[in-house]
Amino acid sequence: MTVHLIPITFDQQGTRQTIVPVLLKDEHRLILVDCGYPGFLPLLEDAARERGLSLDDLTHVIVTHHDMDHMGALAELKRAYPSVEIIAHELDEPHIAGRQKSLRLEQAESLHERLPEERKPQAESFIAFLRSIEPASVDRIVADGEVLPWCGGLEIVHTPGHMPGHISIYVQSAGIMLAADAVVIEEDGKLGIANPEFTMDRRAAAASIERLSRYAIHQLICYHGGLYEGDAGAGLRELLRNERGESE
After folding, report:
1. Contact 157, 144 (CB under 8 A)
2. Side-chain half-sphere CA neighbours of 152 within 13 A
3. Which residues are bridge partners to 191 per DSSP?
4. Quick count: other Cβ atoms within 10 Å of Cβ 112?
5. What is the predicted pLDDT for the residue at 230?
6. What domains, with CATH codes, occur in the chain?
7. Contacts of 117 (CB under 8 A, 6+ apart)
8. Dihedral sign of CA atoms 84, 85, 91, 97 in order
9. Do the Cβ atoms of 225 and 181 come closer than 8 Å?
10. Residues 231-242: pLDDT tens digits?
11. Are strands 154-158 and 8-12 parallel, antiparallel or unpaired?
12. Across residues 135-148, what is the average pLDDT?
């Protein structure tokens, strides 16, 4: 089993940003965890090719939650590779499939009403972008604690807070935690809460950090920041202390 980080760097509103989807490969499967913004399929294909991989071999896509930078390219990816099986948590599936409105869109629309007039045009542009995200059908629904028997065992770890249906993935055979947006790596190299002002439930996010800290993590990989350089358990416990201190 091999784990391939495929960082994709891009410009967004004049700011250089990077996201880090992950490819997991064993003898029979190639699994992509999250797929970036709309239009990112060529970037994913190029990033895979640079690592000697081809999305022609892709068997599964695991979507950790339905934010636009995690599922934006999902529909185009499914069209290009129709045999790929899409996997998501049971709470997120209705939003990914488009049967329920995006929670991020609901949040943005609610916030828009409280903004000063000069900030509303930018917010309206963001709302329009969220409305343009194309849904995609989910082929397999997973629940907390389920272990997918691939790549040495992929444990589904429900880590709500950022969104209710957010999941992390623990690669059991290697002690690797794919944390998605449960935590991020800040510019100073420390762990932080992903977009704390947009986190749906801050208390749930803290509980998810505590849960992650109980795992034996050899490597911690964040969607924003990539591979954490340090003791993952210690870093998570420090973040938890800071987070609980701020909420008191």
Report:
1. yes
2. 15
3. 185
4. 15
5. 92
6. 2-247 (3.60.15.10)
7. none
8. positive
9. no
10. 999 999 999 999
11. unpaired
12. 98
Evaluate whether 195 touches 157 at the Cβ level (below 8 Å).
no
* Cβ contact 161:202 at 8 Å: yes
User: Residue 248: which pLDDT band, with cuts at 50, 70 and 90?
Assistant: very low
Please tell me the distance from the alpha carbon of residue 43 to that of residue 8, in angstroms, as a whole number. 7
Interval 4-17: pLDDT, tens: 999 999 998 788 99
Strands (E), the chain: 2-5, 8-12, 15-19, 22-25, 30-33, 60-63, 85-89, 140-142, 147-148, 154-158, 167-171, 176-180, 184-185, 191-192, 219-222, 226-227
Instruction: Please give the pLDDT value at position 246.
Output: 59
List pLDDT tens digits, range 154-211. 999 999 999 999 999 999 999 999 999 999 999 999 999 998 888 999 999 999 999 9
Residue 71, CA atoms < 13 Å, CB-side half-sphere: 27
The one-letter amino acid at 57: D
Overall average pLDDT of the 109-134 stretch: 87
Residues 234, 214, 21: CA angle, nearest 5 degrees:
80
221: tokens are 């990989």
